[in-house]
């Protein structure tokens, strides 16, 4: 699997550097480019910044990520990292969270677009399949995404 890595990130953990080998999810480059055309992109991750920053430096080849929020911006709720979208400082009517962990968006289920976890399936199309959904949500007919999205149902 290491020979298939798209890039490697050296991460310092307790004074020692370790290489993290990263394989990009299929379609991520096209997905990021299109989402950047439609939205202001804010990456909100439960990862620590010493890993997340270099990862995004490599992943954001189209320079679409406007802001980055890391673990320290998450709320620890019953031992889980929860992403409070009010931390983003944007109008929630226009704010969407795409996440593989339902716990991450328990404060804002009406703003969530769930996505499955990905590990190595080279035939995965989930990111590309989300593009039409995100295009529709960005359209003029949607004044409030929470009236369209509600994963708590």
TrEMBL record:
Can you provide one Gene Ontology molecular function annotated for this UniProt record?
Answer: phosphatase activity
Give the matching SMART domains. Answer: CPDc
Which named protein is this? NLI interacting factor
Q: Which domain of life is it from?
A: Eukaryota
One Pfam family per UniProt: NIF
Instruction: List the source organism.
Output: Eremomyces bilateralis CBS 781.70
Residue ranges constituting the FCP1 homology domain according to the UniProt record: 1-137
The family database entries (Gene3D superfamilies) matched by this protein are listed as:
HAD superfamily/HAD-like
